[in-house]
Amino acid sequence: MRLLVVEDDRDLNRQVAAALEGAGYAVDRAFDGEEGWFLGDTEPYDAIVLDIGLPKRDGVAVLESWRKAGRTTPVLILTARDRWSDKVQGFDAGADDYVAKPFHMEEVLARIRALLRRAAGHASSELVAGPVRLDARAGRVTVNGVAVKLTSHEYRLLSYLMHHAGRIVSRSEIVEHLYDQDFDRDSNTIEVFVGRLRKKLGVDVIQTARGLGYVVEPEAEAGGKRRSAR
Ligand code: CA
Question: Which of 30, 176, 209, 219 has the fewest CB atoms within 10 Å, i.e. is most exposed?
Fold first, then answer.
């Protein structure tokens, strides 16, 4: 999962980006509305943290032009504490959620997790594929209940595939969602990552769709299982 943080307060930008990176996301940063708008308009982010009070172009205007251009990326806005009008304008412009300053970083992380899983159509922060469980809250992966240690890139890759279970994800799409913009990207390394991931998991949950990419099969609906057992 790859995120964008748009915040002109450099310290706050750094803190938010560091917290998100610590939680396993690839993070790009922008410091004014113009740069933020451009990145959000051209890069395929999974979610965006957007400050409302920005130089060059304010957050509401940035959000409005993304939405007008059909960009549906989930956006969490950062608002000043007492500015209720920021929240109203933000939601009207297409924000998905907000956090008022000053905030606890844990709240930003929780709201981002919720936006990401809702965007992917999941109700729970724990994703399941066969014996593999990915707890997005703890950043933990288990296989048959046993914890598996993954590198941040491996975790990001598995998390992306599991969030999009049932859909074939191409290597170029994985590359775009695995690395921040400064990273030297190479889609050939994805095969290596998938190989390592399969080895560490020890089970066959990542299927290769030859020539197309990779897919994790979605978990069957609990209701469906119950019906067939009857
Ligand atoms: Ca600001």
Answer: 209
